Amino acid sequence: MKSEHLPIIEVKDLYVNFYTYAGVVKAIDGVSFTIYRGETYCLVGETGCGKSVTAKSLTKLIRPPGRIEKGQVLYYREPGKEPIDLLGLSEEELRRIRGAEISYIFQDPSASLDPLYNIGYQISETMYDHGLISSIKEGFLKAVDILKSVLMPDPETRVKNYPHELSGGMKQRAVIGISLSNNPRLVIADEPTTALDATVQDQIMDLLKKLKKEKNLTVLLITHNMGLVADMCDRVAVMYAGRIVEEADIYELFKNPLHPYTKALLKAVPNPVKKIDKLESIPGTVPNLIYPPPGCRFHPRCQYAMEKCKSERPPEIWVSSTHRVSCWLYS
Amino acid sequence: MSEIYEKKLLDKFSDALIEGFAKFLDKVRPGWYKKNKARVDEWKLMAYALNRSPPGLIGLALVIVFIVLAIVGPYIAPFNYDTPLTAFDRDAYLAPPGTVITIPNTTAAKFLGVRSGNYTLLLGSDDYGRDLFSRILYGARTSLIVAIMVMLVGPWIGILIGLVAGYYGGKIDEILMRFTDIFLAFPGLILAIAFSAVLPPRIQYFLNANPAVRQFFLSLFSLKVQHAGSMAYLVSVIIALWIVWWPGYARLVRGLVLSARENLYVEAARALGVPTRWILLRHITPNIIGPILVYLTLDFGGVILTEAGLSFLGVGAVPPIADWGRIINDGSQYFPNSWWLVFYPGLMILLTVLGFNLIGDTLRDILDPKTRRSIEFKLKKKKQKGEKNEV
Amino acid sequence: MAELKRFLVRRLLTFIPTLIGVTFIVFVIAAVIPTDPARMWAGGEKANPKVIEQLEKEYHLKGSILERYYFIMYKLFTNQMVSPVTHHYIWDDLAKRFPVTIQLTLIAFIYIVLIGIPLGIIAALKRDTWVDTAVRIFALIGVSTPVFWLAYLLIFLFFTQLGWITLAGTPKPDYSITGVPLIDSILHLDFPMLAQILQRYSLPGFILGFMGIGITARIVRNSFLDAISADFTEFAHARGLKKMRIYKHILRNALVPVITVLGLQFGGLLGGAPITERVFGLPGLGSYMLQAINQFDYLALIGAVFFVSLIYLTANFIVDILYAFIDPRVRY
After folding, report:
1. Where in the sequence is the domain holding C165, given as residue range(s)?
2. Three-class DSSP category at C260
3. Widest pairwise Cα distance in chain C
4. Which residues on chain B are in Cβ contact (under 8 Å) with A21?
5. Residue of A18, A19, A20, A21 to mutate when probing chain B, most B C-beta within 10 A
6. Residue A2 above 70 pLDDT?
7. Under a CB-based contact definition with an 8 Å cutoff, are residues A60 and A93 in contact?
8. What's the CATH class of domain B137-365?
9. Which chains form contacts with chain A, at 3 or more CB pairs under 8 Å?
């Protein structure tokens, strides 16, 4: 942990529902966490556990049929000063923050870029709309520098290329370039390497690490890849079925996982810290969030489940100043 | 699966219909029912969805009325399609709807097969004194037969070409698609007009040389022998529409096959050396049958509309054949005074074509997996409500 | 832009085999021509055998297939084909009638674009409401209506009852720039002329475009919805672009499939022209075809078919170029 515990984002008691034909999906169910300045904070969990929805909720990017029901996202613009609640801002106020102060990198770079405009234009317009430059033409010159900084090969030519003329890795570099073009404070990287080839994944993560150091960024990394977590993160929150079940310092989590789900998860993937002999899968299936299990949402799959787990939601228990868990085993 | 929904009277009816059809298939091929139980349930589910879609039901009703009229029309029509009532009553000349005419008891009447007495001309009559109501009933038959004849051949040429091009790819695909492009270089209706215009003499010659075929078509169209010459024009329209109605299907099916081929199980089947015929039948057909069915339904209406247009232009049906488009063409010179000659046949075309389009549009929703789930959900919700009421 | 040039050259090259194929089909139409056209041209049953013989020789009616094909194509391409019925050069007649049809199609096209596209956008923005349903039903009625029937109903309303439109004559200014009166009168700022043209052509144009309006609205709606829910739109929001700019991205992406549809619509309009011209008595290419059919002037008929397909091919070519301009993916 860095930067003397000055928070940049504080999420408090967030609830998000999706109103689908099949019923109301309770996608995020009372999530709270804090991201500190300069750190890399990780959200991990299986597909569909609500990581991405949480990330998008931070700047109200949730679109119908989704709706943020309740909660606060406190954003500390200047260290130590009064925070603002992002969820209470108007659309225009939020727009000024998105991309300029808080920016995103999404999973699939091929889909993130508009296929009809070249890379330079898409970088330029992002700067132009935040008032960083006075003309799109000027933006093209700056875009070359930006592409250089994200290690795009041959940036002078690439700036005029269209997305379909670039490889997957180059596209993601371009997306990163767009995201960093306005020198944001917080970068939210939502599975930034999942759609890429394995060899390119490493390059992109190295780039992110390098940029984070150079620009002194705060990063919220969303992933299901435990290897990435170990490599990048300072602190980790494990999500399951729309709730955070455990949050800890990176070493603490890998060495001393407390929640049965975290334990199971670590046994299911190669552990970068502790050597395990055999990988095990987690029995059971991800619950249906239209009719989520009552009490602890993990109890149907939990081998330590007690009667209490089936009816009462487990409280948040701080086992140390950097480690909290939501489980009746520790109360 | 079908048991979870609350059944209405209509559902029970459609269930019985589908069951009956399945039993029939079972009789033809013993063991079919057992093997295809899931498919029969799927059909029932689709029927439930259709039963709950007002546009679909309206469309179905319109189409059923049309088909019934086309089948029984010639038998229930008060007059024949070419009976000139002006020969008996001067009032029958361009008579407005509701005109009452009197037919005297003469030999001429007997000769024309008309019984004497008073008749009300429901929809009026034309300049030959022919009863519009009767002609519209005969016209339904004309439309239906042309549409069936076109749909039985035209699209299937395209489907076959599309299947072959999409499945084999490479050179074959290239050649077939270039061939298709050539036909697509003409606006369809223009090509149809040209072929309908130049074909009739040859068709006439052909029909005269093959009396059996001629008789077959005469009875299908419910026409008198002396009008076989005029019928050749209708047959020409059918052939002209074969020529223009396949390229669209070739494109469509090729695209569908190409995307179906991407499926891993198709690739796996090919790698395992499953025979081509089997792959096409078992793995590709189920994927492409939905959209094809939708287009066939929509085009049934499209053919009726196009045929009416050709007849309106004078290159389709010729007098005295009763054809909706032709009636409008002949009646247009008396418009707007004798408005009924234009209004009623046009209304019939509109309602019939709309019927097919409503069904097609509803089918598209039912067969599309994206919209399908919402329909199933609505069905379930009704069921839940029903349960609460019982409690 | 070098790619664009290469794309154009390639597109032109695929044009050639299609054109050859088109001439082939035109010839097939000529080949199924009724067995004894020379007799009809010479005046029917009582025709002078010498005249018949001369016509047969002049038009190579008894020649081999290859000879006939060569004759027809050579004469058509060099504008030497003379109609045996009217004794006019066919190509000249077609050129005279071309402005009427193109004017009609242009006006129909304007209706399609001005009504169809906004309707589609409104339906997309009001998705799953009664507005969306209304547009859907309108589109279904559009493809189900026999336009000649609708034409008579509207003639009754606007001509017989209201007297807003004219049904005779073809207004033509005495100056000519492009040869199309509608465009010429606008270029000349000749508003009385323009008003006359619109009085004569606005209803036929609407009738011709009627089917296309609904189809276009549906396609625009669907492609607009696709673009709104696309990932790049979400990313555009996420990087804080201004609302208008996001709409620009959505609109341009939604336009790509719409252009294809509009191109296809153009073929539909050319095909529908005979019906509209017949109802409104406009002397365009469609009525030329019908007249040729009535007079057994089959050479004029195939000339017209060939001419229309050339227009359509050219239109498709233009659509492809537009497509390449708007979508960089097709100009590889």
Report:
1. 91-298
2. helix
3. 84
4. 373-374, 377-378
5. A21
6. no
7. no
8. mainly alpha
9. B, C
pLDDT in tens, A244-256: 999 999 888 888 8
Is any Cβ of chain A less than 8 angstroms from the Cβ of C46?
A: no
- Closest by CA to A110, choosing from A173, A62, A155, is A173
Closest CA to C250 of C276, C230, C271, C280: C230
For A203, the 3-state DSSP assignment is helix
A277 or A29, which is more confident: A29
Min CA distance, B331 vs chain C (Å)? 11
CA–CA separation, A50 and A29 (whole Å): 9
Measure Cα distances from B390 to A323, B7, B377, C332 in Å: 52, 14, 20, 65
- Which residue of chain A has the CA closest to C241? A129
Q: Across the interface, which of C141, C289, C305 has its CB nearest the CB of B354?
A: C141
C203 Cβ neighbours under 8 A, 6+ residues apart: C151, C154, C155, C158, C165, C280
pLDDT of residue C72 exceeding 70: yes
Q: What is the ipTM of this complex?
A: 0.89
In this structure, the number of other CB atoms found within 10 A of the CB of residue C142 comes to 22
Going by their DSSP bridges, the two strands A243-249 and A323-326 should be labelled as: antiparallel
What integer pLDDT is reported at residue B389 of this predicted model? 41
A43 or C37, which is more confident? A43
- Structure tokens belonging to residue C225: 């919805």
Mean pLDDT across chain A: 87
Closest chain A residue to C324, measured at CA: A116
Give B208 or C179, the one with higher predicted confidence: B208
| Cβ <8 Å between B186 and C140 | no
Q: Is residue C136 part of a domain?
A: yes
Computed on alpha carbons and rounded to an integer, the radius of gyration of chain B in Å comes to 25
pLDDT of residue C263: 85
Within 8 A by CB and 6+ apart from B308, the residues are B143, B316, B323, B324, B325, B328, B349, C146
pLDDT digits (tens, 9 = 90+) for C308-327: 999 998 888 888 888 888 88
CATH number at residue C177: 1.10.3720.10
> Minimal Cα distance from C136: which residue of B?
B361
Counting as low any pLDDT under 50, the low residues of chain B are 1-3, 385-391
Q: Which two tokens stand for residue C69?
A: 């094909």
Record: contact A112-C235, CB cut-off 8 A: yes
pLDDT of residue B306: 95
The domain total for chain C is 1
Of C206, C190, C182, C180, nearest to C115 by C-alpha is C206
- By CB atoms closer than 10 A (0-12, 13-18, 19+), residue B6 is middle
- Please give the sequence-ordered ranges of beta strands (E in DSSP) within chain A, or none if there are none: 7-20, 23-36, 40-44, 66-75, 84-85, 102-105, 186-190, 218-223, 235-240, 243-249, 316-320, 323-326
The reported pLDDT for the residue numbered B377 is 57
pTM of the model: 0.84
CATH of A7-93+190-197+218-330, one of 2.60.40.1590, 3.40.50.360, 3.40.50.300, 3.30.70.2860: 3.40.50.300
Domain ranges of chain B: 2-73+375-386, 83-121, 137-365
A6-65 residues touching B, CB cutoff 8 A: 21-22
Identify whether C146 is part of a domain: yes
The whole-number average pLDDT for the span C262-268 is: 86
Paired tokens of A30: 């009372």
Share of chain A above pLDDT 70, in %: 96
pLDDT band at C221 (very low <50, low <70, confident <90, very high): very high
Residue C82 within any structural domain of the chain? no
Higher pLDDT, B349 or C255: B349
Tokens of A174: 């371009």
Residue carrying structure tokens 């054109």: C19
Place of tokens 């190669």: A270
Measured from the Cβ of residue B68, the count of other Cβ atoms closer than 10 Å reads 11
